[in-house]
From TrEMBL:
Organism: Absicoccus intestinalis
InterPro entries: Form_AcTrfase_GR_CS, Gly_radical, GRE, PFL_dom
Annotated positions of the Glycine radical modification: G725
Keyword Lyase: yes
Coiled-coil regions listed: none
Designated name of the protein: Pyruvate formate lyase family protein
Limits of the PFL domain: 2-625
Length: 750
C-alpha cells in the first residue's frame, strides 16, 4: 500500500452522476484491457502509450444516442481510464481508488474481486495523481485535495484547457491532418496523427449509434457525421457536432468562447435559410442538455460576448440564442458566462438581466473594461492577447488556446494565521505545521506590525511550498502523458512538435485558490483594534478565548462579532482586507515569475471547500466558532454584511483585479426586488462595475424558500442556487453547505 492516503474523495461532487450504461462485466473488461495496454507499452514513449490506452476506451465508452438528442456524443467514465480532470475520473492515466472499491462491492465472484484487487495494487504505483502526491504530500504542512486538516492542499489536474475550436471548425479534420503531417515526424507528431484517426473511428461509431437510435432527425445527424469525417464543416450543425465530439475525446469540460467558434456558422445558415431560429434553438438546447448530463459540478463553461471578437454581428446573434436557451432550461450546467463591455448591445444586457431575475442563476457577468487590462498586467501579456481571457471552473482565468492555468494549490489563510499565533501549532489538531520556522510567542510581539510580520513570515513559507507544488504537478503530468487531443488544439504545440506540458503550450501558468481571506482580515482588524489600538485586551487573552472556542467568553465573542466587518463599506476594515489581499496576491505572483511560469496568481473563489475547510479550522477572532464554514470567496462571512447591497458591492469592488487570476462575487436578491426595482438594481450594477467590479454572480430566491427546502426537499427538486463559482441544485447540497448559503444576506430592498 501507498504511504499516503490515496483512497478518498478527490473532488467536490455535488451533481448526481448518470450511471454507466455498460454492464458490470463489460466495465471490468474495459478496465482490464486498459491496464494491459498500459503495461504492454509501459516502457514505450509516453505519447504512444497514451494512444494505445485511448484506443481501448474510444469509441467503446461512448453511450447510446437518446431520442431527444440532436447532436451525437455521450460518454461513460470508469474508475480506471484516461482524463484531464478529477470531475470526470482523473488526470492522465488515472485510478479513482474509492470508486474502484465501490465497483468491487458490486461484483459477484471472488475471482473478479481478486482481479480488482490486482488492478488496485497496480495503479497505486502508476496513477498520475498518486505519483505526484508521493513527491509533494507530507504529514504536517501539505495535504491532498481534499484533506482539510492541512493549511495547504496540493493536487494534479489539468482542468483549465480551453482549446482552439475555431481552428478545428475552420480546418476540419482534413485540414488538421494536413497541418500535422507537414511537420517533421517524432513520437508526439506520429501519436497526434493516430489520435485524429481514432477520432475518425469515434465518428464511425456515432454513425452506427445514430442508425440504431430513435432520434427524430436521424437523416441529418447521419449525413452530417459522414460529412465532417472527410470535410471541414459548412453548416452550424456540422460545426457544432465536430466541436462536441472533439471536446469529449479531449476530456475538456470547459468550452470557451463558442460565439466566436459557432456564431459565423449560425449567422450564415440563418441568412441563407439553411436553418430556422427554432431549429438552431433546438440544436443549442441539445448541447445544453449534453453538457448538463456530464455532471461536472463546477465546470461546463460556455462564454460569449466581450472584447476580441472579429465577427461581432454573428457572435451577438449566437449570444442571443444562448440567452434564450439559458432562460428556458434552468440547468446547473453549462456555466453560461457573459463577458460585456461598453459596446455590448442593450438588448443583450436586458436579456441577461431577465435570465437572472427569473432565477436561472446565469449568465455570470464579467466586466471586460476591468478584466482585460487586469489580465494583461497579471499575466504580463499584450492587451490583444489578454482579450482572449476566459474563466473556467470556479472562476480562474486562462487565455483561450494559449495558456494552461489550473489551480493545483490551495491555501487556508485563516488556519495559517492561527498557526502563526500558536508558535507553529494548529489548535485544531495540536500538530506543528510551521516547517523549519521558529515563531515567537505572541505576547512578545509588542506592536501590530510585529504581529502581522510574523504572520507574513509564515505566509511566505507556504507561498514557497505552493509554487514548488504547482510546478511539480506539471512536471509529473508531463513525465507520464502527452494529452494528445488537447495538445493538437493548443496553439504552438504542433508547430513546436511538443506536447502542451513539454514546451508546446505558449503560456504555462497556474493559479492558487485562497480560502478564509475575509475571516482573516476581519480577525486582523479585531486584533489591531482591541489589542494594539484600544489596549482593551492582551493578545494572549484573545487567543485563549479562541483556543477554548469562546466557552465562558460569550461577551468577548459578542464584542468580536459586533466589531466593524468587511462588506459594509467601512474604510478601515476594507483597507485591512485589501492589505492582506495585496500581500498574498503579490507574493504568489512574484514567486511564479521567479519560478519561470508565465503567471502564477491567486484566485479568490470557492466551491464548497470554504465549508469543508471550515470544519477543520479552529475558532477565529472575527467571532467565528470552531468548525463553522469560512467566508465564501471574496464575500463577507455570512451575516456580516448589514448595510445593504450598495455597501457590500462597494467593498467587493475594492480589490485591484490586476493582481489576481479570478475572483468571485456572489449576491442574493428576492424576485420581487429584481422585478420591482429593476432600474435601481441595474444602476447599482453599473456603478459597481464602473468602480472596478470585475465579476458578479446572482441568486434570486424568495425569502424563506431555502429554509423550507431544507425541511421539505421533495418540494424543491429543481431549486438552483449559486454556491460560489458554480451553481447547484440546493437539495443536493449537504446541510452544512446549505447552512452557509442560508447565512448569506438576502436583499429584499434598498
Amino acid at each position: 500500500m501507498s504511504h499516503i492516503n490515496i483512497d478518498g474523495e478527490q473532488n467536490v461532487e455535488v451533481s448526481r452522476k448518470i450511471p454507466c450504461e455498460k454492464s458490470i462485466e463489460e466495465q471490468l473488461n474495459i478496465m482490464i484491457a486498459y491496464t494491459n495496454a498500459y503495461k504492454t507499452h509501459l516502457h514505450n514513449d509516453k505519447a504512444h502509450r497514451e494512444l494505445a490506452c485511448l484506443k481501448v476506451i474510444y469509441p467503446r465508452l461512448f453511450r447510446s444516442i437518446e431520442p431527444d438528442d440532436r447532436i451525437a456524443g455521450r460518454l461513460d467514465f470508469l474508475p480506471i481510464g484516461f482524463g484531464s480532470v478529477t470531475s470526470l475520473g482523473g488526470v492522465g492515466h488515472y485510478c479513482v481508488f474509492h470508486k474502484l472499491r465501490a465497483f468491487k462491492a458490486q461484483l459477484q465472484t471472488e475471482q473478479d474481486k481478486a482481479i480488482v484487487d490486482q488492478l488496485y495494487d497496480f495503479w497505486q504505483d502508476h496513477d498520475v495523481k498518486t505519483i505526484y502526491c508521493q513527491d509533494i504530500l507530507n504529514d504536517t504542512t501539505t495535504g491532498r485535495f481534499i484533506d482539510c486538516t492541512y493549511p495547504f492542499m496540493a493536487t494534479a489536474r489539468l482542468s483549465g484547457m480551453m482549446l482552439n475550436y475555431e481552428k478545428l471548425v475552420n480546418l476540419g479534420l482534413p485540414g488538421l491532418f494536413a497541418e500535422i503531417q507537414k511537420q517533421e515526424a517524432n513520437d508526439f507528431i506520429d501519436a497526434s496523427i493516430g489520435a485524429l484517426h481514432l477520432l475518425e473511428d469515434v465518428i464511425d461509431d456515432q454513425i452506427e449509434k445514430v442508425k440504431q437510435s430513435k432520434v427524430k432527425d436521424q437523416k441529418r445527424m447521419i449525413n452530417d457525421l459522414i460529412y465532417i469525417k472527410d470535410h471541414k464543416p459548412k453548416t452550424f450543425h456540422q460545426a457544432l457536432q465536430l466541436f462536441w465530439l472533439y471536446a469529449l475525446c479531449a476530456g475538456c469540460i470547459n468550452y470557451g468562447r463558442l460565439d466566436i467558434v459557432l456564431g459565423p456558422f449560425l449567422q450564415q445558415d440563418l441568412d441563407n435559410g439553411t436553418i430556422t431560429w427554432q431549429e438552431a434553438y433546438e440544436d443549442m438546447h441539445s448541447l445544453w442538455t449534453l453538457i448538463e448530463n456530464r455532471r461536472t459540478t463546477v465546470n461546463g463553461r460556455i462564454i460569449v460576448g466581450g472584447k476580441g471578437r472579429k465577427n461581432v454581428k454573428a457572435c451577438d446573434t449566437f449570444t442571443r440564442l444562448c440567452l434564450e436557451v439559458c432562460r428556458n432550461t434552468r440547468y446547473v450546467e453549462p456555466q453560461f458566462t457573459l463577458r460585456f463591455d461598453k459596446n455590448t448591445p442593450q438588448d443583450i444586457l436586458d436579456m441577461a438581466y431577465d435570465c437572472i431575475a427569473d432565477g436561472a442563476t446565469y449568465p455570470t457577468l464579467y466586466n471586460d473594461e476591468i478584466n482585460v487590462p487586469a489580465v494583461a498586467f497579471a499575466m504580463r501579456l499584450d492587451e490583444t492577447i489578454a482579450e482572449q481571457y476566459v474563466p473556467f471552473g470556479c472562476g480562474e482565468y486562462v487565455i483561450q488556446a494559449k495558456s494552461v492555468g489550473t489551480p493545483n494549490t490551495l491555501l487556508n489563510l485563516l488556519k495559517i494565521l492561527q498557526i502563526s499565533m500558536n508558535q507553529g501549532i494548529d489548535p485544531m489538531d495540536h500538530t506543528y505545521k510551521a516547517g523549519p520556522l521558529a515563531l515567537k510567542p505572541i505576547h512578545e510581539l509588542k506592536t501590530f506590525d510585529a504581529f502581522y510580520d510574523q504572520y507574513k513570515k509564515l505566509l511566505d513559507y507556504y507561498f514557497d511550498l505552493s509554487i514548488e507544488a504547482q510546478v511539480h504537478s506539471y512536471t509529473i503530468m508531463n513525465q507520464e502523458v502527452s494529452f494528445l487531443f488537447p495538445s493538437i488544439l493548443m496553439d504552438d504545440c504542433i508547430q513546436r512538435r511538443k506536447a502542451l506540458l513539454d514546451g508546446g503550450v505558449e503560456i504555462l501558468g497556474g493559479t492558487n485558490e485562497t480560502y478564509g481571506n475575509i475571516n482573516t482580515s476581519d480577525a486582523l482588524y479585531a486584533i489591531k483594534t482591541l489589542v494594539y489600538d484600544q489596549k482593551k485586551y492582551t493578545i494572549d487573552q484573545l487567543n485563549e478565548a479562541a483556543l477554548h472556542n469562546f466557552e465562558g467568553e460569550e461577551s468577548l465573542r459578542k464584542e468580536l462579532v459586533n466589531l466593524p466587518k468587511y462588506g459594509n463599506d467601512i474604510k478601515d476594515v476594507d483597507e485591512m482586507a485589501n492589505d492582506l489581499y495585496e500581500y498574498v496576491a503579490k507574493g504568489i505572483r512574484n514567486r511564479g515569475i521567479q519560478a519561470g511560469l508565465g503567471y502564477y496568481l491567486i484566485v479568490i473563489s470557492n466551491n464548497q471547500t470554504n465549508t469543508d475547510w471550515g470544519h477543520q479550522t479552529a475558532a477565529s477572532l472575527d467571532g467565528r466558532k470552531a468548525g463553522v464554514y469560512m467566508n465564501p470567496a471574496n464575500n463577507p462571512q455570512g451575516g456580516a454584511a448589514k448595510s445593504g447591497p450598495t455597501a457590500v458591492l462597494n467593498s467587493l469592488s475594492l480589490f485591484d483585479a490586476k493582481y489576481h487570476g479570478g475572483s468571485v462575487q456572489n449576491i442574493k436578491f428576492t424576485p420581487k426586488m429584481m422585478h420591482k426595482d429593476a432600474d435601481k438594481i441595474k444602476a447599482l450594477w453599473r456603478t459597481y462595475f464602473k468602480k472596478g467590479g470585475c465579476q458578479l454572480m446572482v441568486t434570486v430566491v424568495d425569502h424563506g424558500t431555502l429554509e423550507d427546502a431544507q425541511t421539505h426537499p421533495e418540494k424543491y427538486p429543481d431549486l438552483i442556487v449559486r454556491v460560489a463559482g458554480y451553481s447547484a441544485i440546493f437539495v443536493n447540497l449537504g446541510k452544512d453547505v446549505q447552512d452557509e448559503l442560508l447565512s448569506r444576506t438576502l436583499y429584499e430592498s434598498f
